[in-house]
Design a protein that fits this description.
The chain is mainly α and 192 residues long. The longest helix is centred in the last third of the chain and has 29 residues.
Length: 192
Amino acid sequence: MAKNRTEEFNQIVKTIKATYEDLVDYWIDYSLYASFEYWMELALFILPLIFLFFKIDKTKIFQIGFYGYSVHMIAHYIDIFVREMGFRNHPIPLIPFLPGFAFDSSLIPVTFMLVYQWTLNNKKNYYLFSGIAALLFSFVLNPTFVSINLLRLYGKTNYFHVFLGYVIVIIGAKFINDVFLWTERKFKKPSN
């Protein structure tokens, strides 16, 4: 007799829960405070934030911060998608339930925030310089992360696919930021 829809869904939820329990056990066995990779993830989370604290243009902090938040959210959603689809994963996560946390919450947003800030302050082409940063992430940093076991690619996933993800991030974050800046200008009351 076929299972009904609710029973089948409940079984899927139990399987996911068991998988997360296995991931936590794996994390405790191989990550927590005991490995080079764990400490590297921690450094990749903390050091960019410290650097940003000193380098962010305080006169444009909300604009740059909102842009960084947009980068963070888009990168995080892409990371969830590619991880759940089995294309890429982080074998030694900083936090077991958020495998890409150090990358999505610090390293990637801070890097692109500083590029965005530089293009604003120097009137340079955002897409060109963000594209260069995306190329460096995709074809230099990501292979380095793979070689030191901070990242794994699976199946037919390659660094060009990773680059396409960064392109989505930089276009999406700029678009969202521009929409909010346009809205602010359109509805801002003139000062007397």
